[in-house]
Specification:
single chain, about 400 residues, alpha/beta, Aspartate Aminotransferase, domain 2, Aspartate Aminotransferase, domain 1, 2 domains, 5-stranded mixed beta sheet, 13 helices, about 15% strand, globular, transferase, SP_NH2Trfase/AEP_transaminase
Length: about 400
């Protein structure tokens, strides 16, 4: 094929509507382009501890935080390795691909995994969770693991209800929460909700490059850690506590801390509650567009439980006979719009619109308009006017 016959590369800036990693503000990109510094220098320690205080404000905790060079999966593993001994039981609330992945990791580490099954489109039944806890008379369940915001299905699991189920059953299990796609986008209250280990990452609501993750750890979890027997070294909280910076058994990713310092400044400048309100507003507009498109046998919201809608990502189920990955390819190659794909058994069945992090109304409206254009070009049935439906929620 000649160069002239090839599909031309679309011009203009990439519209990145993937649910993670997310758009990085220019000021954060510039902050991470900091010259190399000695992480043992007192001037860097000031930056480090200011960032730790800022993370605690976002997590809404006064307890410990440990940080790692690695993605959110690293923080998952740190959480499990520091709390469990071989053969102990983790009860996982099924919510989608990422709850399954966390469960598989636990199994690989020698932890016994039990699951509270759930319809991926509606979410877990809290009565089923409480029944499972009540039946555990010997308290073999060491911890309950829940993905606060299941990125693969566009579903939020209400953590206060999980805490209420634990308390209602009088069960002493630890509460572990994956906040990777919720922290800095959805309200999260570690101490108030009795979360014992909160798992987070840099690349979503915190608007940073991928590469740093962390765990917020309660005093109760630290007591459990003292008797844990699973092998660990780099992730070992006790070893970290002896370090001057209480994290990183090795080189500290200093450039990410300069980026984090700027990220926290932006969050503080906007106000955390205003950040949540903005995510709610943009998510509502996105869902209105999808619900409008669903006419004429068009795409529809994957999550069908209004009480569980995610405010950081919307999963969109394609009509029968239409491949979501082929549609995403059109959106990317023709219009420079990057959308998230379906994960695991949902591959090819849905696409995902991320609306978290550094995002505003023009960006989400541009994304929705381009999705509608890609639906038209791809021959996917839909009811035109989704952007107008989104606008109606924003006016």
């Amino acid at each position: 094929m000649s160069a002239s016959a090839a599909t031309p590369k679309p011009r203009g800036r990439l519209f990145f509507a993937n649910p993670g990693p997310t758009n990085i503000p220019d000021s954060i990109l510039l902050a991470t382009a900091h010259h190399t510094v000695d992480f043992n220098d007192p001037s860097f320690s000031e930056v480090y501890w200011a960032c730790m205080d800022g993370l605690k404000r976002v997590l809404k905790t006064r307890q410990e935080i440990f940080l790692y060079t690695g993605s959110g999966h690293a923080a998952w593993e740190a959480c499990l390795a520091n709390l469990f001994s071989p053969g102990e039981v983790l009860l996982v609330l099924e919510s989608g691909h990422f709850s399954q992945s966390w469960a598989r990791m636990a199994t690989d580490l020698g932890i016994e995994v039990r699951t509270v099954p759930a319809d991926w489109r509606r979410g877990v039944d809290m009565a089923a969770l409480q029944a499972e806890l009540a039946a555990d008379k010997d308290h073999r369940i060491k911890a309950v693991g829940v993905v606060h915001n299941e990125t693969s299905t566009g579903m939020m699991i209400p953590l206060p209800e999980v805490r209420a189920a634990l308390d209602g059953a009088g069960h002493p299990a630890l509460l572990l929460a994956d906040t990777i796609s919720s922290l800095g986008s959805l309200d999260f209250r570690m101490d108030e909700w009795g979360v014992d280990c909160a798992v987070g990452g840099s690349q979503k609501g915190l608007m940073l490059p991928t590469g740093m993750s962390f765990t917020g750890v309660s005093h109760k979890a630290l007591q459990a850690h003292a008797t844990s027997k699973l092998p660990k070294h780099y992730f070992h909280w006790s070893h970290m506590m002896k370090r001057p910076l209480k994290s990183f058994l090795g080189t500290v990713p200093t450039s990410l801390f300069f980026g984090l310092q700027e990220s926290l400044r932006l969050i503080d400048e906007e106000g955390l509650e205003n950040v949540f309100a903005r995510h709610t507003r943009l998510a509502r507009a996105t869902r209105a567009a999808v619900q409008h498109w669903s006419g004429n046998n068009g795409p529809q919201l994957f999550c069908t439980n209004p009480g569980r809608f995610s405010d950081s990502v919307t999963a969109v189920l394609m009509p029968e006979g239409h491949d979501a990955d082929a549609f995403r390819k059109v959106a990317m190659q023709r219009f420079n719009l990057s959308l998230g794909g379906g994960l695991g058994p949902l591959g090819g069945k849905l696409f995902r619109i991320g609306h978290l992090g550094d995002l505003n109304e023009p960006m989400i409206l541009g994304t929705l308009a381009t999705v509608e254009l890609a639906l038209k070009v791809s021959g996917v049935p839909y009811q035109p006017g989704g952007v107008d439906a989104a606008l109606a929620t924003l006016g």
